[in-house]
Amino acid sequence: MVCRRQVAVGAYVTPFPDRLHIITWNVGSAMPPDDITTLLGLNVGDGNTDMYIIGLQEVNSMINKRLKDVLFTDQWSEVCMERLSPFGYVLVTSQRMQGLLLLVFAKYFHLPFLRGVQTETTRTGLGGYWGNKGGVSARMMVFGHSICFLNCHLPAHMENHEERMEDFESILQQQQFEGQAATGVLDHE
């Protein structure tokens, strides 16, 4: 995604971060690979990516793994941080709901221009009681522009298309953020 906006900040003009690397991947309970360089595009890019948004589905959510992840950082977050931090990226926010994980990284020098970071979760599995299906999101103001990233894991297969659409509508309705502007997912720029 390339945005060519500029935002006035103080006495100079600061460009809106225009290079986002967005990943969505159903990892099927697999462990992170040893090298995620290709996944992150670090081997082909020019190093000018401003933000990484990583949405994973089916991250191992067995009870023993979840208990460990409560006490320590989960393995997927760790491998992403280890790979991105040498290039000047920091974890802005993360949101986990069972096997659903959303990570947002930004270059460290963008941090003063990121405001109002909030996250939301919506369970849709078992009638809204179980988080194996649903959505996690992160919203923020980036250089004065409201943006929202939504990672969903919905029922699979063609025969479940109506349930999938209902779940998505439910996620959009239930995910409400605090603040006066951009309270819903679709209210963001």
UniProtKB/TrEMBL annotation:
Its EC number is 3.1.3.36. Coiled coil: none annotated. Residues 16-187 form the Inositol polyphosphate-related phosphatase domain. The gene is INPP5J. Pfam families: Exo_endo_phos2. PANTHER family: INOSITOL 5-PHOSPHATASE, PHOSPHATIDYLINOSITOL 4,5-BISPHOSPHATE 5-PHOSPHATASE A. InterPro entries: Endo/exonu/phosph_ase_sf, IP5, IPPc. It comes from the Eukaryota. This is phosphoinositide 5-phosphatase.
